[in-house]
Amino acid sequence: MTSSPGERVLVTRPLERAWLEPLHAAGLTVDVVSADEIGDSAALRSRAAGAAALLVVLGDRVDAALLDAAGSGLRVVATISVGVDHIDLEACRARGVRVANTPDVLTDATADLAMTLLLALTRRVREGEALVRCGGWQGWEPGQLLGRDIKGARVLVVGAGRIGGAFAQRVHAFGARVAYHGRSPRPALEDALGACYEPDLDTALGRADVVSLHAPLTPETRHLLDARRLALLPPRAIVINTGRGPLIDEHALVAALRSGALWGAGLDVYEHEPRIHPGLAELPNVVLLPHLGSATEDTRAAMAKLATDAIVSTLRGEHSGDPGDG
Ligand code: DGY
Q1: Under CATH, domain 107-288 is a member of which superfamily?
Q2: Contacts of 142 (CB under 8 A, 6+ apart)
Q3: What's the confidence (pLDDT) of residue 326?
Q4: 83 alpha carbon – ligand 1 mean position (Å)
């Protein structure tokens, strides 16, 4: 089956031409929002009217108002992200709109970035680099910028899905002792890595030198690490977050970092992106990245391919799954 000629796809960000090629090849009309419309929800609603598909990113709120503005011809929302917390899945389901995301292809890139944050933090890369660049380095010193070993550290992976599992493999290869918390045990992680399943998060936090967050953002996981849970971590613990910012109460995190209760934090995601909590950027014991988890050339191209293929197959009527199943 072919898609009806000229069916319109609204793309909410300027994207590389090659990434949009599957849409052009399918004969779809590709309508890309202009730079000054980005993040303007009223403009997005008006541009969405009559679209058969929306190609969105995680900075877009796909809510009932946007779906209604698009109208009854809308059949698929494809997001260039694995996370779907910016999309009202129930509203899509109710309107028979398929939601497609981009799992698998970003697993390694995101796990690599979590590892990057952990290494940068534990080996004080940011401070060392700044010292060399500013010309302040006076030569090798026995006690200079001493960091922490990953070997032997007790690393707790919260949310041991694809990305959490890949991060667990990486820290295991560095000699860490891996524990994981999630809804259910993952025997494969236990067999391959000797990882220990921790069904009770509070108990697990009390035993962790490093906690790395990989859970999806849902109403249940919002502020999973709040002030109470941060206080359960042993002194000198490290927090890594490449999942979603609101998994942590950022205000409580800043307080814990300031007081020295935590050794440090490596963050790629923030509670109110792109804003970060006042005081966070001034802290010496943090490494802060601008949501780069999946940001490699190959990964982003693969994500775009999955999302555009999902649009084409849905508009051709080839997708057999239930609407909203991703
Ligand atoms: C995702 O895919 O959800 C990531 O956060 C984007 O890199």
Answers
A1: NAD(P)-binding Rossmann-like Domain (3.40.50.720)
A2: none
A3: 33
A4: 6
